[in-house]
Give the backbone structure.
Amino acid sequence: MRKHTACLLLGFACAAALTTGCGKKHEKIDLGSTHTTAETTAPETMAPEDPSEPASDPSIDVTLEAAVENAANSNAGSGTSSGNGSAVTANGVKSSMTTYTEGDSISIQYPVFADLGSTQDAVNALIKKNALSVLEVYDTANVEQSLDITCKVIAADKTRITLVYKGTGMTKGAAYPTSLFYTNTVDVRKASDIDLPYLADPDTLADYVLSDKCVYVDADGKSFSASSEALATVHADRDKNYYRNLFSQADFPYTGEFPACFSYEYQGEIYFSIPVPHAIGDYIIAVYTPENK
C-alpha cells in the first residue's frame, strides 16, 4: 500500500468531512507521530489468538516505548487474524502482534497483550474491536477496496496502553489512496477507552489551534512548519465552536461513525489530529504541552 505522507497528514476524513460541522462522530481520520525509546528484550513465543488459526512467521515490527524491541507478525488467510511468533516484555507486560486480513487487499495489524491481570481478556477484546472498526468505513466485500494498516505500541503497562495505527485506504472509484491514522488509549484497570477530553480541555485546545502558537509535528515527531497560507485556508471555514466540537468527540469508543480526530499522550505532551483537505495532506498533527506538565 501507499506510503504515509511526510508531514503526517491524515486522509481518512477527506475534504467532505473537513468542510462540514462536527456530528457525534465523523467518518474518517488518522493520527500519528511517534518517538519511542527502544530497549532490547528477549523474544518469547506466544500462541495465536485462536488455536485453530495458524501461527505465522515474523514479518512486521512494533515498538514499545519503555522497553521495546520487535514484536513481529505476518498475515493469515482471508478474514482471519494470525498470531505472531514473537513477543516483547515492557513494564511487566507482554505484547505480540496479530494481523487481520481479508484476501490480498485488507491488512490491519493490532496487538495482543498478556500479564494484564483480571481485565486482560476485556482489554484485548476492546483493542481488537477498535482496531478493526475502520472496516466499517469501507465496503470490504468489494475487491476494489483496500486497507493497509500497521500498529505501533507507544506505551504499555498494567495501568494504560497507548497505540497508534497508520496506513492507507483506497475506495472504489477513488483517484488516489488516502492516509489513515488513528489511535487508541486504554485504561487497563477499567478495560475502557480514554479520549481526548480526558487528557485536555477541548475549549483550551480550540483556542490553541486557532492561535499562532500551535505546534505541528511530522511523522517522526519532529517540528513541522505548516504553510501559513495552507493553515489560513483550513481555518477559514472553521471557528472555535468547530474545533471545540471536534475535540469533544475525538477518539474511541466507536459509536457507528469513525471519529474525525484522534489523540494520544506521550511523555506529558498531547498529540492530536486535525482533518484537512487531501491537497494539504488529509490530516495534520498538533502537539500541545499542558501547563502543569
About this structure: Residues 175 and 226 are 25 Å apart (CA to CA). Confidence is low (pLDDT under 50) at residues 1-78. Helices lie at 14-19, 120-132, 196-199, 202-210, 228-236, 240-248.
